[in-house]
């Protein structure tokens, strides 16, 4: 490296840091989308209308563990924490280390845990926190663009960890996720949210109550 390039490096880094601070969480989200477009569902975080409708069916009084796949910059995290019981736990899982670092830095709640890993390993991840099942799992991962085999693996893993009476909550631009949910959930309710960029499809996959 030449002397001039070496001298310019700190200036370039400071410029990047300044731009990141100016853009705030939107900058983190957009950067994450550019780095991993097939793993991030949208270039813009979900709207408050999508959040409210997606979480509406959750039985918060009976939710001890809520899991989210692909939390991004935490668009759903604070709304979930606001409703979660005081002894509840929120575990979020993302393959993007930048998102995980941002969430660990910005969300200071003892109930919150951000894990760098794959949603397909959800059973192992929640097990490391002492849980053998989740009450609800939320996902905004773009199932239609995930690498081959990943979508089915996530559907199977989620079907195994969600408790009877619990649900897999998914918001997407495509209905592809339904194919991966159907083998493991007894009922799938569907919805649609127009007030989102882009308008998105909503799915709630329910496990039947254990009547034994």
UniProtKB/TrEMBL annotation:
Presence of keyword Amino-acid biosynthesis: no
Transmembrane segments: none
The entry's keywords: Methyltransferase, Transferase
One MF term in the entry's GO annotations: methyltransferase activity
The keyword Transferase belongs to this UniProt entry's keyword annotation: yes
Top-level taxon: Bacteria
Domain RCK N-terminal: start-end pairs: 72-139
GO biological process: one example: methylation
InterPro entries: RCK_N, SAM-dependent_MTases_sf
Official protein name in the record: Methyltransferase
């Amino acid at each position: 490296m030449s002397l001039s390039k070496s001298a310019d490096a700190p200036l370039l880094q400071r410029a990047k840091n300044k731009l990141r601070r100016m853009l705030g969480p939107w900058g983190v989200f957009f950067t994450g989308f550019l780095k991993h477009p097939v793993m991030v569902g949208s270039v813009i975080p979900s709207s408050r209308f999508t959040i409210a409708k997606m979480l509406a069916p959750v039985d918060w009084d009976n939710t001890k563990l809520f899991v989210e796949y692909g939390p991004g910059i935490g668009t759903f995290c604070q709304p979930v924490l606001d409703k979660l019981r005081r002894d509840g736990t929120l575990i979020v899982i993302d393959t993007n280390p930048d998102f995980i670092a941002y969430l660990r830095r910005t969300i200071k709640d003892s109930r919150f845990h951000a894990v760098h890993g794959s949603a397909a390993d959800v059973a192992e991840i929640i097990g490391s926190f002492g849980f053998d099942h989740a009450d609800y799992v939320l996902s905004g991962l773009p199932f239609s663009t995930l690498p081959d085999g990943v979508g089915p693996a996530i559907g199977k893993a989620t079907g195994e960890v969600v408790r009877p009476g619990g649900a897999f909550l998914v918001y997407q631009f495509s209905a592809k996720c339904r194919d991966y949910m159907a083998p493991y959930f007894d009922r799938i309710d569907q919805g649609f949210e127009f007030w989102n960029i882009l308008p998105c499809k909503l799915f709630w996959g329910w496990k039947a109550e254990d009547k034994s």
